From TrEMBL:
Transmembrane segments: none annotated. SUPFAM superfamilies: Galactose-binding domain-like. Pathway: Nitrogen metabolism; (S)-allantoin degradation; (S)-ureidoglycolate from allantoate (aminidohydrolase route): step 1/1. PANTHER family: ALLANTOICASE, INACTIVE ALLANTOICASE-RELATED. This is Probable allantoicase. GO terms for molecular function: allantoicase activity. One of its GO terms (biological process) is purine nucleobase metabolic process. It comes from the Bacteria. Belongs to the allantoicase family. Keywords: Hydrolase, Purine metabolism. Signal peptide: none annotated. The gene is alc. Residues 26-173, 194-335 form the Allantoicase domain.
């Protein structure tokens, strides 16, 4: 079991918002000016970048990211990425991990909102959301974005060339909820619908945001897992729902967790207006129960419907695992309020 690789200096937006450039959600690297040494698709890989000494291919040293050739002409390199969902971008991570003598000296980010069915290319009208920023080798570069507009595509510009290991685009998906039927059950805890993690007391072996990812977990590393609890109490995660809604069905999936699944789980919920993330952590301890304690089993999907308490529309839930352990996915099916 691999220890969760995280940057303790990462800003809050990296934990709170979805990575809109995640191919597991549907993001795609569409076009690049050059990708001689390493393909553009590799830059979106959700796993942390790795370095493999002695590994070469037909073009030279194998690098885990997008890398262009040494530019011998004027201009600069660029890559266009289609985001998984239209959304408001809150921040980015331009990660040059393992690129030392071949990282770009600087980069900028442009964004565009491309209508459905249209194609984003070099002729698209782009808006600069991150001005040219100095980069360092083998480093994370976190940049906060304050543009309130919703975008569907971003363009990463490298000045003049080089390699980027990973590009993360953290943001809040914008869906047309006016088109959603009030009679259809919607997963209000789905990251692709706009749900996000507010806080979690422990994420030692796996990020709590994995709970909200689409599909079933691919392995034990693709879930939320806490360290072994050696004191009284239980572990928890607070989730802001995609939209206020009335929850009718809960699914707790412990896929791949066998000797380390939680013994039990429960849910608390409330309709919250205003407040900060830190205040929600305190409030959540006193929220009413949406789902009383339920027994869990290893490597299984647990569905609860009749056990759900009617609380009406809620905006946030606190997911309790008792006492600790790992859960792959959490689904909260409900009607949009």
């Amino acid at each position: 079991m691999a220890l969760l690789i995280s940057d303790p200096d990462a800003p809050d937006f990296t934990r709170r918002y979805a990575n809109l450039a995640d191919p597991r959600l549907g993001a795609e690297a569409l076009e690049a000016s050059d990708e001689f040494f390493a393909p553009k698709e590799r830059m979106l890989n959700p796993e942390p970048a790795v370095f493999i000494p002695g590994k070469y291919d037909d073009h030279g040293k194998w690098m885990d990211g997008w890398e262009t050739r040494r530019k011998r002409t004027t201009g600069y390199d660029w890559c266009i990425v289609k985001l998984a969902r239209a959304g408001v971008i809150k921040g980015l991570d331009i990660d040059t991990s393992h690129f030392t003598g071949n990282f770009p000296p600087a980069a900028s980010i442009e964004a565009a909102h491309v209508p459905a069915g249209a194609t984003a290319d070099a002729a698209t009208q782009w808006t600069e959301i991150v001005a040219s920023t100095t980069l360092q080798g083998n480093s994370h570069h976190y940049v906060e974005v304050r543009d309130p507009a919703s975008y569907t595509h971003i363009r990463l510009n490298l000045y003049p060339d080089g390699g980027v290991a990973r590009l993360r685009v953290y943001g809040q998906p914008r869906l047309d909820w006016g088109q959603a039927s009030r009679a259809d059950l919607i997963d209000l805890a789905a990251m692709e619908n706009g749900a996000h993690i507010v806080a979690a007391n422990n994420q030692h072996f796996g990020a709590a945001s994995n709970l909200l990812m689409p599909g079933r977990g691919v392995d034990m590393g693709d879930g939320w897992e806490t360290r072994r609890r050696r004191e009284p109490g239980n572990d928890w995660a607070i989730i802001a729902l995609a939209r206020p809604g009335t929850i009718r069905k809960v699914e707790v999936d412990t896929a791949h967790f066998k000797g380390n699944y939680p013994d039990r789980c429960s849910l608390q919920a409330a309709c919250v207006s205003g407040g900060t993330d830190s205040s929600l952590v305190t409030q959540a301890m006193f929220w009413p129960e949406l789902l009383g304690e339920q027994k869990l089993t290893m490597d299984a999907q647990h569905v609860f419907e009749r056990e759900i308490v009617s609380l009406g529309p809620v905006t946030h839930v606190r997911f309790n695992i008792i006492p600790d352990g790992g859960v792959s996915r959490l689904r909260l099916w409900g009607f949009v309020d």
